[in-house]
Specification:
Elements lengths: L1 H26 L1 H8 L2 E9 L4 E2 L7 E12 L2 E4 L3 E6 L11 E9 L9 E12 L3 H17 L4 H12 L21 H14 L9 H17 L4 H18 L4 H18 L6 H15 L7 H24 L5 H24 L7 H25 L4 H28 L8 H29 L3 H6 L11 H23 L3
Parallel strand pairs: 5-7
Antiparallel strand pairs: 1-3, 1-6, 2-3, 3-4, 3-5, 6-7
Helix pairs in contact: 1-9, 3-4, 3-12, 3-13, 4-12, 4-13, 5-13, 6-7, 7-8, 8-9, 8-10, 9-10, 10-11, 11-12, 11-14, 12-13
Length: about 500
């Protein structure tokens, strides 16, 4: 009963947060205006992310802006909404963290996220520049994009995506705020994205919690070697999480990873063990309460689903795979497979279809993902100080992303995703299959436990020992040895001389 009460309270909180987020998004002045139709508007807001190449035909760039106020028909109204600003040439000078005035046509979105669009024709005016820290980070990102612009096509696309969360064909590589169009063929970028989606490794084209896990494990090893107290370790981890989050392009998965990292550091400072599922639960509750709009975010749902899948099944699947694969392959493969299982219901809502070759694709790319992530982050940190070193590290990262591109193209073209019911019906079917598999697993364990002979431990008093499961290599060796023995007997029978 206490567990059911907690689950009911969590479900009620999530439902209320979703309702509040939906209503707050509908009640803003910009949202009210686009429901009535297009209108000329003047806005003042802060750029949430960097300018990127426009996804809308006829425009050069786009950026997400968080409003402070909006003026429509001479009436100024305060607002806390987010809009997507589209601009051309000289107006593509917005910097992340800066405060700007802009005037343009406010209109409803034609696709993508349900936030208003503002098409700016006459340019933008900077009211307040970004802070020194944000300007330094922007310089680092520009220098990194300049170095990755010297790579081949797959490197230009995938290295920025894996490292900082924006694909090379979406970035504006112009230095010092000047506009530069991506030098990647759009058809190739589209085909590569489709191959990654069909092969089940689309998550590698964006920043995920893996960046924060790698950074945290490295810092924890260093701090433990130095015998640092838990409070100091928590402060160092918190600063590292905040700094890494600022280096990345803002995204819902980055927000989830950063929030969970800070909660884990808080648990460490309080001398409490960090538990992934408990931390995830607190993270979801706090994020939905503070930012109710995240209840409608596919990116946030995918990130939370991945962590949930890892927390529920990673340990058991790792133990199972280690009987047949080396540990350095079994553990990352188990992590990616559990993450994919947790995100499947949400992926079906986005695009129906099950990537059948996803386990094989993850097995091929697992050995290079962590190394490519580390070299990519080092390239981002060094490109603005030592461009040759940054270029060398970017080239090393490109070798890893080349393996990913090869696996995605090979497997993505080999088999199309299996058809699956779209929408909530498909998601409900996947959840039902998962529950059936869990019930079946529990039932089999119960039957084996009831049928097990307990007389031997009662006689010997020994409760130790683990069940022996031969690996695939041992099974193959035994099969070959027995086959050779049978063939030898047949030969000797037929040829007694």
């Amino acid at each position: 009963m206490p567990t059911l009460a907690v689950l009911a309270a969590v479900a009620l909180t999530a439902a209320l947060a979703a309702a509040v987020g939906h209503e707050s998004a509908r009640s803003g002045p910009a949202a009210r205006q686009i429901r009535q139709g297009k209108a000329l508007a003047e806005i003042r807001g802060r750029a949430v992310g960097p300018m990127s190449a426009s996804s809308r035909r006829g425009w050069d760039c786009q950026a997400e802006v968080r409003l402070q106020w909006v003026t429509v028909a001479g009436v100024r109204m305060p607002s806390d909404e987010r809009i997507m600003l589209f601009a051309r040439s000289r107006s593509c000078l917005l910097q992340q963290g800066g405060l700007y005035l802009a005037r343009g046509l406010l209109e409803p979105p034609a696709y993508g996220r349900p936030i208003p669009w503002l098409a700016v024709e006459d340019g933008t005016k900077q009211v307040e520049p970004p802070g020194p820290c944000r300007r330094l980070i922007a310089r680092m990102q520009r220098s990194f994009l300049e170095q990755t612009g010297r790579l081949d096509d797959q490197g230009r696309i995938l290295v920025p995506g894996l490292t900082m969360g924006i694909l090379g064909n979406q970035a504006l590589p112009g230095s010092d705020g000047s506009l530069g169009r991506p030098a990647v063929e759009p058809a190739y970028a589209t085909r590569l994205t489709q191959d990654f989606r069909a092969s089940g490794i689309l998550h590698l084209m964006a920043v995920s919690g893996g960046h924060f896990m790698i950074l945290a494990s490295l810092l924890v090893r260093i701090m433990r070697a130095l015998r640092s107290p838990p409070l100091l370790m928590a402060l160092v981890l918190s600063a590292a999480y905040l700094g890494l989050g600022m280096l990345m392009v803002p995204g819902d998965s980055v927000l989830r990873a950063q929030a969970m990292g800070l909660l884990s550091a808080l648990a460490l400072a309080a001398f409490r063990p960090a538990q992934s599922l408990n931390t995830l639960s607190w993270c979801v509750l706090l994020v939905l309460i503070l930012r109710p709009s995240m209840a409608a975010s596919f990116g946030f749902a995918l990130s939370c689903g991945a962590v949930l899948g890892i927390g529920l099944g990673n340990r058991r699947l790792s133990a199972l795979l280690e009987d047949h694969l080396p540990a350095f392959l079994a553990r990352p493969l188990a992590t990616t497979m559990c993450a994919q299982a947790g995100t499947m219901p949400v992926q079906v809502l986005m695009s129906p279809g099950l990537p059948l070759l996803a386990p094989l694709a993850n097995l091929l790319v697992t050995p290079v993902v962590d190394a490519a992530t580390v070299t990519g982050l080092l390239a981002l940190l060094t490109s603005w100080l030592w461009p040759p070193v940054g270029l060398l590290l970017a080239q090393l990262t490109s070798l890893g992303t080349g393996v990913m591109a090869f696996a995605a193209t090979w497997l993505g073209e080999a088999a199309a995703p299996a058809a699956w019911p779209p929408g909530p019906v498909g998601s409900a079917c996947l959840v039902g299959l998962g529950l059936m598999a869990l019930i079946d697993h529990r039932l089999m364990r119960f039957i084996r436990a009831r049928g097990r002979d307990h007389s031997w431990p009662a006689v010997t008093g020994a409760n130790s020992g683990v069940p022996f499961r031969p690996s695939a290599w041992l099974s193959a060796k035994g099969w070959l040895r027995q086959t050779y023995g049978l063939l030898a007997q047949l030969v000797f029978k037929n040829d007694p001389g």
